[in-house]
User: Which sequence fits this backbone?
């Protein structure tokens, strides 16, 4: 048994840590968050050259051919600095949809080209799932994909699409029939005629969200990813892998909040002694350590499960997401609390992490939703529920 | 990162499996099995060979334990002896003490108990008031101990006593091995809130202990006891991690409703699926609040399992476990309480007075009465948090008023 990173993974970890420390100080992150893009395209090119964007993409699709473990190593470091990048939406959502789709049905030329371009960092993409209802459940997918000859014609709205206003391609979840499962995943170019994209107001400025209006947007049938009659077989693993990625990213962010808070309690003196010497403060920190270390265990195990494509993924993906995002949320809150007054000023960094924790906790489904997914992943469906 | 055996581990596993096949017969008596384990060094594989161990690597010990569980063979003697008293005697005892005590301990011939806590010294263990006075070559011990597991079965006890109350509290303590059959030892069962008596009170009235049963130097009792307690925390924490692999999972029916704390512990460790089963049977599986809590508790189990892999990896690489091991007991306690609470929520009024033949409900009823103890014994949850924050996170201790002055002059409980 070796439940630890190997030498190569540790090297990736070190180089990611260095690069991110040099290029993504909080000032840089905040400055970028004010731009429409929200990230530095040159920096994205650079991490693509390092192989990050194609890390877990199979070589046959132009990727580096490493595993999900290497991917989560990088994600953890990104999370620590709130690294501004289309990486999550593009590599951890859209690319996964294409990779998982390729296991169900061969990718069309356009779709394969998109995956190769994502892996090379030449294009960015995202996944458009949620609609005004905001839920990640089949009945809430209402965006219509009507067949018209060899094309699909799309009409409807997608909300809360990560980097949706800037992505080169939108992997869109659309409905072609009445039944819950009658869903298709379509590769829609970002500049498709009839598609209107607007940056939405987002509580977390370091993670951009967009609203997409589809008015007679036309894509060829070959834009379909996976099974055009039953896209759940692609969408489910995509969501599970996305959950693992978000867990890994949130782990890094939670660790950062914890480290910052702990250091502050040792420096801050009140009543003639460091506040770290008060049991009321110590016990909070002990609980946070337990939450963060438990999250590390969950995120790493989930990374291994994803890398090995084990049968446990439907349970472990949501499990890791729920565990780590809850821990991040608790840690981000405690970070503010332990800083006292300075902690809730705009000037202090703590609120950026609090905002990220708020968004990560609900994106890809909130904690209750992921716990329900965990039970269903274990095969514990509600009695009498349809499959 | 790979949870499967390395080629070296696979080879080791084969050898160990072979040894178990050759040496374990189903139905072997406990005492015979203990003898086999002791003679082969598998009773305490990590101990040095000269003291009856194998000087084995952690990998060997872990793989042995896994393979032993698979064939349903009993573990080596547990309790206070091998896990706690043994390592303390090896670290701090004399050669004569090692010679005399380790063998019978490994063979399970002599049971041990721990004489640490007192009515006035619980979390503040260094506040013990049991007196040890040296007259000639013999110590005379008087006082009262409490929470002593297996005192009535024990042949020997590890004892902390105060040899000099004029010294500051930590400096005046010395560590002994006490003969539980000696004159002046009185053992009184202590009935807990469950109605059973796992623990005892031990009264000592001028009990004589020869000086050669002192462990460590005069006044080093606190330091010696740290070895014992570190081993205890490790055992309690790892207990929450062990046995949760899929092979070892048991069905709820296998948990004995009349069982002791220990069996309850086994049930808790092995029973994430049992909770789901209970909910299905009780018709609570469609309740969204129950489902949410089931998933949360399942996650706690799994997180403990994954953390166990990290600890095992560290041990197998010959490193001491790191930060991840320090929270073991605390996270186990939180899990146990969550399990008990959820069982009651699922069972509802059915858990208030379960009929004897309904094992499921019986377990729920009993577990609920058992769990308040778990966050207290072996160091309360609050003390665990102090330990984690001070020793792992490097947070400063609370200022103390009792550490420097003579023990005789400070305010005491009890």
Assistant:
């Amino acid at each position: 048994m070796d439940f630890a990173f190997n030498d190569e993974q540790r090297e990736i970890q070190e180089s990611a840590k260095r690069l991110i420390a040099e290029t993504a100080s909080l000032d840089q992150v905040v400055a970028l968050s004010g731009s429409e893009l929200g990230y530095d395209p040159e920096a994205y090119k650079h991490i693509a050259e390092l192989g990050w964007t194609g890390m877990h993409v199979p070589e046959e699709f132009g990727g580096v051919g490493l595993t999900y473990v290497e991917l989560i190593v990088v994600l953890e470091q990104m999370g620590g600095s709130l690294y501004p990048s289309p990486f999550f939406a593009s590599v951890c959502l859209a690319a996964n949809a294409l990779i998982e789709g390729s296991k169900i049905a061969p990718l069309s030329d356009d779709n394969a080209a998109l995956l190769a371009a994502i892996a090379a960092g030449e294009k960015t993409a995202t996944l458009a799932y949620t609609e005004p209802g905001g839920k990640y459940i089949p009945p809430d997918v209402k965006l219509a994909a009507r067949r018209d000859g060899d094309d699909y014609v799309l009409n409807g709205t997608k909300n809360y699409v990560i980097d949706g206003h800037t992505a080169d391609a939108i992997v869109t979840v659309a409905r072609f029939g009445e039944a819950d499962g009658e869903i298709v995943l379509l590769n829609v170019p970002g500049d498709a005629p009839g598609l209107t994209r607007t940056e939405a107001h987002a509580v977390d400025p370091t993670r951009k969200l967009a609203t997409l209006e589809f008015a007679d947007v036309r894509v060829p049938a070959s834009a379909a990813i996976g099974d055009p009659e039953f896209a759940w077989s692609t969408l489910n693993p995509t969501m599970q892998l996305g959950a693992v990625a978000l867990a890994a990213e949130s782990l890094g962010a939670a660790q950062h909040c914890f480290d910052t808070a702990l250091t502050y309690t040792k420096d801050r003196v009140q009543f003639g002694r460091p506040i770290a010497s008060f049991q009321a403060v110590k016990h909070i920190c002990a609980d946070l350590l337990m939450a963060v270390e438990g999250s590390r265990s969950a995120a790493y195990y989930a990374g291994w499960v994803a890398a090995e494509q084990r049968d446990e993924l439907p349970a472990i993906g949501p499990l890791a997401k729920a565990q780590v995002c809850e821990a991040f949320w608790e840690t981000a809150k405690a970070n503010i609390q332990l800083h006292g007054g300075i902690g809730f000023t705009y000037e202090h960094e703590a609120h950026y992490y609090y905002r990220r924790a708020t968004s990560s906790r609900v994106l890809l489904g909130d904690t209750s939703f992921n716990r329900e997914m965990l039970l269903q992943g274990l095969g514990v469906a509600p009695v009498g529920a349809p499959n | 990162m790979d949870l499967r055996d390395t080629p070296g581990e696979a080879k080791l596993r084969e050898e160990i499996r072979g040894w178990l096949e050759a040496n374990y017969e189903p139905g072997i008596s406990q005492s015979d099995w203990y003898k086999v384990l002791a003679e082969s060094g598998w009773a305490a594989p990590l101990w040095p060979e000269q003291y009856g161990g194998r000087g084995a690597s952690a990998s060997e010990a872990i793989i042995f334990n896994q393979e032993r569980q698979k064939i349903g063979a009993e573990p080596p003697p547990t309790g206070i002896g091998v896990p706690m008293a043994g390592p303390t005697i090896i670290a701090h005892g004399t050669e004569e003490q090692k010679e005399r005590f380790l063998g019978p301990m490994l063979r399970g011939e002599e049971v041990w108990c721990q004489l640490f806590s007192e009515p006035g010294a619980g979390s503040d263990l260094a506040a013990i008031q049991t007196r040890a006075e040296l007259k000639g070559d013999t110590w005379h011990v008087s006082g009262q101990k409490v929470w002593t597991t297996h005192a009535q079965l024990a042949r020997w006890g590890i004892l902390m006593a105060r040899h000099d109350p004029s010294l500051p509290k930590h400096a005046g303590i010395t560590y002994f091995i006490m003969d539980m059959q000696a004159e002046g030892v009185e053992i009184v069962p202590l009935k807990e809130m469950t109605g059973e008596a796992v623990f005892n009170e031990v009264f000592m009235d001028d009990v004589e202990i020869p000086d050669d049963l002192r462990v460590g130097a005069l006044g080093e009792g606190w330091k010696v006891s740290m070895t014992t307690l570190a081993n205890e925390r490790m055992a309690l924490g790892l207990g929450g991690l062990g046995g949760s692999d899929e092979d070892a999972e048991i069905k709820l029916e296998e948990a004995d409703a009349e069982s002791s704390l220990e069996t309850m512990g086994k049930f808790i460790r092995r029973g994430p699926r049992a909770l789901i089963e209970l909910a299905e049977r009780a018709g609570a599986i469609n309740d969204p609040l129950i489902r949410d809590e089931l998933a949360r508790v399942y996650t706690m189990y799994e997180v403990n399992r994954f953390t166990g892999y990290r600890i095992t990896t560290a041990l197998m690489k010959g490193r001491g476990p790191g930060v991840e091991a320090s929270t073991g007991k605390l996270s186990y306690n939180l899990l146990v309480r969550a399990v008990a609470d959820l069982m009651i929520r699922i069972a509802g009024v059915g858990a208030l007075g379960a009929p004897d033949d309904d094992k499921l409900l019986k377990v729920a009823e009993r577990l609920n009465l058992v769990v308040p103890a778990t966050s207290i014994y072996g160091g309360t949850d609050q003390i665990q948090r102090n330990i984690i924050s001070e020793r792992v996170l490097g947070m400063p201790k609370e200022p103390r008023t009792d550490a420097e002055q003579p023990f005789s002059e400070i305010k005491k409980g009890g």
The first helix of chain A runs from residue 7 to 23. The longest strand of chain A covers residues 151-162. Chain A touches chain B through 50 residues (CB under 8 Å). DSSP finds eleven helices and ten strands in chain A.
